[in-house]
């Protein structure tokens, strides 16, 4: 039975991709605290923490709300995803060969002391039984950046968003812990919402390197084309287009939030915080008259604090409505619950 949270054709398509990638283990996963702490792994974890802090202050802040072991694992996952994403940069030599090698590395799950990020990935993928197919779908998204420069419809774009963002959320669930597969559609929607936020924030930056992630058909529907993007046209057509895109992203955030209740209690605040912090980027775009060409939208310290308070209030509301949490047995793999 298809989840009630899946409402449209593109959502069904993404859900099918997630189902195809499911490789659940029949055994409970050993927590990271029980894993042997080698010197190489300790070094690898420090490297991944540095990568996370340098590249995403919002994600670094959100993951600081997790217990230590999960925080370390989540930042290792971020570092792996960031390393993969960097292979699509224009200054990378022979990116196809490097992506092919990375696919071989993650499938083998080899600890490579010479590569800190792969060492950390091997540890968390084994410890939390993260389906390697999700990581391979992430690499599919990275590879598409080497050839795809335009997306004609939102459905086309949604597949890209799934590959580069929803897969990260799905892998993250194995670290936070989740109650049932019912969490999957919510994670997919949250990933699409987060990636749409990135896309709207980075229009100008992406255009400067020859990329446009806005659906071409929707640009045309608002009377816009690539010449308008190149001219940085901040007119009413652009404002209406951005209002439409922001409204869609906010709708996806709202539809994804109920899935937080299906996560392990000690991971809910971090996920709610990440979602709330990213929505603040949309607010900032609006405050600056939808100018995403001459500035990069961000959330200042005061607004981050307000976002964290809203996220905390939301998770407290969940807790009050789920007083039976202590009776739940949160697994890192499939349980008896069906979709």
Average pLDDT across residues? 87
- The DSSP helix count reads 15
Rg to the nearest angstrom? Answer: 20 Å
Provide the domain count. 1
Helix content: 55-70%
Q: If classified by CATH, what would the architecture be?
A: Orthogonal Bundle
CATH topology: Farnesyl Diphosphate Synthase
Give the CATH level 1 class. Answer: Mainly Alpha
- N-to-C series of helices and strands: HHHHHHHHHHHHHHH
Write up what this structure looks like.
The chain is mostly helical and 339 residues long. The chain has 15 helices and no strands. The radius of gyration is 20 Å and the shape is globular. The N and C termini lie close together (5 Å). The model is unreliable at 24-36 and 331-339 (pLDDT under 50).
């Amino acid at each position: 039975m298809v989840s009630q949270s899946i409402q449209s054709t593109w959502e069904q398509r993404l859900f099918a991709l997630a189902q195809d990638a499911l490789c659940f283990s029949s055994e409970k996963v050993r927590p990271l605290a029980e894993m042997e702490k080698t010197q190489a792994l300790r070094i690898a974890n420090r490297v991944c923490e540095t990568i996370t802090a340098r590249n995403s202050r919002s994600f670094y802040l959100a993951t600081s709300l997790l217990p230590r072991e999960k925080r370390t694992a989540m930042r290792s996952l971020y570092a792996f995803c960031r390393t993969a994403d960097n292979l699509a940069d224009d200054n990378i030599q022979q990116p196809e060969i490097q992506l092919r090698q990375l696919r071989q590395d993650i499938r083998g799950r080899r600890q490579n002391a010479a590569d800190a990020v792969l060492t950390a990935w091997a540890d968390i993928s084994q410890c939390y039984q993260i389906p390697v197919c999700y990581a391979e779908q992430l690499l599919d998204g990275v590879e598409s950046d080497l050839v795809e420069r335009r997306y004609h419809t939102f459905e086309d774009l949604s597949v890209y968003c799934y590959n580069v963002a929803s897969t990260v959320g799905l892998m993250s669930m194995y670290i936070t812990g989740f109650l049932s597969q019912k969490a999957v559609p919510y994670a997919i929607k949250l990933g699409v919402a987060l990636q749409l936020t990135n896309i709207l924030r980075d229009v100008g930056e992406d255009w400067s390197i020859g990329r446009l992630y806005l659906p071409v058909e929707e640009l045309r529907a608002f009377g816009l084309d690539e010449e308008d993007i190149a001219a940085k046209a901040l007119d009413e057509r652009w404002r209406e287009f951005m209002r439409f895109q922001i409204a869609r992203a906010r709708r996806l955030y709202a539809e994804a939030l109920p899935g937080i209740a299906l996560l392990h209690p000690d991971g809910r605040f971090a996920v709610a915080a990440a979602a709330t912090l990213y929505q603040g980027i949309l607010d900032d775009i609006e405050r600056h008259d939808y100018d995403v060409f001459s500035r990069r939208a961000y959330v200042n310290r005061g607004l981050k604090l307000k976002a964290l308070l809203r996220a905390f209030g939301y998770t407290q509301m969940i807790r009050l409505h789920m007083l039976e949490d202590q009776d739940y047995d949160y697994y890192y793999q499939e349980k008896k619950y069906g979709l």
